[in-house]
Amino acid sequence: MISLRQLMNTKQIFWISVLSIAVIFSTIAAISFGGVDVELKNIFTGTISPLELEVLANIRGPRVLLAAVVGAALGISGAALQGLFRNPLADPGLIGVSAGAALGAVSAIVFFKDGLFGLQFGIFLVPLASVLGSLIVIGLIFTLTSGFTQSGITYMLLVGIALNALATVGIGFLTFISNDSQLRGLTYWMMGSFGSANWQLLIPTIIIVTIAIANLFMISKKLDIIQLGEVEAHRLGINIRLIKMTIVLCSAFMIGACVSLSGIIGFIGLVVPHLVRLLGGANHTFLLPGSALLGISISVLSDLFSRIVITPAELPVGLATSALGAPFFLWLIIRLGKN
Questions:
Q1: pLDDT class for 291, splitting at 50, 70, 90?
Q2: What is the pTM of this model?
């Protein structure tokens, strides 16, 4: 049995503890405050009102849990993809996974309201189409770069950027041809929201994200070795192709499932891994869990901010995360350009 101290140093264990506490406090705050404040102590004293119980069980509870799941998925997939591509600007949005998932979901909303491939999927139609869209993008990335023998990971990133642009064009076209009733929902959904959370869709998403995160944790040490370069990692016995497929497929399933429920939430996958590196270092045994925890806190707090800033209206949560991430992204580019 490998102990935590064997995986992380004292400083990293400290920061994991701090980030875990931050998750607890941010979750409590997100559950407690909103259009209707909920006193959590009333649950334990048995004095919770029917309205508070309804808000907690069927509205705010699943919403906060969805925000946490999406934050964890975006944070850890961003860290894993940056490590795989050895590029500080890589994230699920940059390589086309998010846009592919969004294109699949938008296509289902506009064209396939009555089913997909002749089958009826009910409320699962959009999530399935979203995952399918992300997998198609991943399949194209692997197919188009399969013949590259040198710098394969770099070309995967470049192909992903191109596919991201094409998927964005497709989303714009489908938004343009949508009818009025579809347009408002699509526009709001594309800016990101956790307001549509429900237990029926949330539970399968939690299962998918949990399995994917567990697989990424299992290859964290191998991801550290890849930082030495593909040739050196291969000499040390690392199956580069298997690591590529594991990271990219796990990211595709996670982001596809999450995008189908929340829309596109920008910059968490890009910003969070850099913040975690600044806190405790770049080894992936620390970076992956740290990014998942910080992603949860930022996502949950962003959702809380979006709910209370213009009450009773609601600000799209994607605007809140972009307001945080865009200045950091600009600072990162300037910093990299000066090195």
A1: very high
A2: 0.88
